Hints:
Blueprint: H1 3-7, H2 11-18, E1 35-39, E2 42-45, E3 50-53, H3 56-59, H4 68-78, H5 92-104, E4 109-115, H6 118-135, E5 142-146, H7 155-160, E6 177-180, H8 188-201, E7 204-209, E8 213-214, E9 220-221, H9 224-236, E10 240-244, E11 268-271, E12 283-288, H10 289-295, H11 314-328, H12 330-350, E13 356-362, E14 365-370, H13 380-390, E15 393-394, E16 401-404, H14 412-428
Parallel strand pairs: 3-15, 5-6, 5-7, 7-10, 10-11
Antiparallel strand pairs: 1-2, 2-3, 4-12, 8-9, 11-12, 13-14, 14-16
Helix pairs in contact: 4-11, 5-11, 8-9
The structure holds pyridoxal-5'-phosphate.
Subunit structure: Homodimer.
GO cellular component, one term: cytoplasm
GO molecular function, one term: pyridoxal phosphate binding
Amino acid sequence: MRDIELKELSLAERDKKHLWHPLTQHKLSPEMLPIKKASGCLLTDDNGKNYIDAISSWYTAVYGHCNKFITSRVAEQMQNLDQVVFSGFTHEPAIKLSEELVRILPEGQQKLFFNDNGSTATEIGIKMALQYHHNLGNDRKVMLAFEEGFHGDTFGAMSVSGLSVYNGAFEDHFIKVKRIPVPTGENNQELIEILNRIISENSIAGFIYEPLVQGAAAMKFHDPSGLNEILRVCTENDIIKVADEVMTGFGKTGTFFASDQIEEKPDVVCMSKALTAGLLPMGLTSCSKKIYDAFYSDDIAKGLFHGHTYTANPLACTAALAAVELLVSEEMQENIQRISHLNTEFCEKLKDHSKVKNIRSKGVIMAFELDVKMERYGNLRNQLFKFFMDKGVFLRPLGNTIYIVPPYIISNEEIERVYSVIEDSLAAF
Ligand SMILES: *Cc1c(COP(=O)(O)O)cnc(C)c1O
């Protein structure tokens, strides 16, 4: 098609010609909405309509979109060093980032392994657990995971994810996984018995878990003391504890990491999403000295032979470094506390509403289930999405779960607008 003809089509129409979107059945999906601009908490579409980004664009842009502090740092870095091989070479942005991150990571985290996204971060976490035992000469090849966990879309990550409704074509190729339910408080005792039985009957290498909040399982919370018990059993059995903090990391649950709220610390931490503040893609897998030492050897084969071309890209490292600087600032910590407090008040207000079930909040995360007869609304999720978008709020309900993970810099006025549109939805459905 000639350029002149293409120009007459809308962006949404041109999108359809060659683009294949993630997590989308194109035959059943409406047109994609072109977004032209993002700034602070706002997304602007090609008609100039604004939407409050109440989920921080999948939990990434927590300091606001196009944050000047971060973009100017990256722009400066871009003039000096754009990309270099990270095998045999090193650079200051990666070194500085490691120094700053080790300060705020859960106790014991010492070594950082760079990668590209959340799935590769967990993939490497799994590899670290499996190879740790391999290197020690232990025959342990099974991973332990929570039912309904989500850890990404590459093969290892898919294998340990419990939400596999759409993964049917790949299941025959999965790594071996045993699953346990999340602790609810009531089931804690029984869960430990189940866990002990699984451990005695299988050679478990590692346990991968989303601490405290399971994002893709519709912002499901679980019992911290129950998780602590599970982790304690893992420690006693030298099962490598892999905390998938891809969603929960960098302040979302009110602390730097969700693991900070649990006594028993992870051996491995997986990070991405807010790591680079939504500016550039990057993942990170950190580990304790114990893990690193199991790979440190005169035997070359005991090394971790995994590497991505863009490992520790200096621009992404610079974005992450600026993001950490913002995160630890008093202002940002106050913002997180402010949103936590507003969320708690909103939960209190709605908790007895007849259509609101299981309303909960932790840090900036707030969620509840909309208790309406689904069949009355056909695809409730899509109708809710449209309802919120029409009113200028970008939310992505999961089934009948409505949740927010707003940018930390959201103003009181903006978050009140989000709350009020949610309340409108209670009246409308
Ligand atoms: C998003 C997510 C992933 C996968 O990250 P991608 O960057 O999308 O590959 C893994 N684990 C958790 C907990 C996530 O929320």
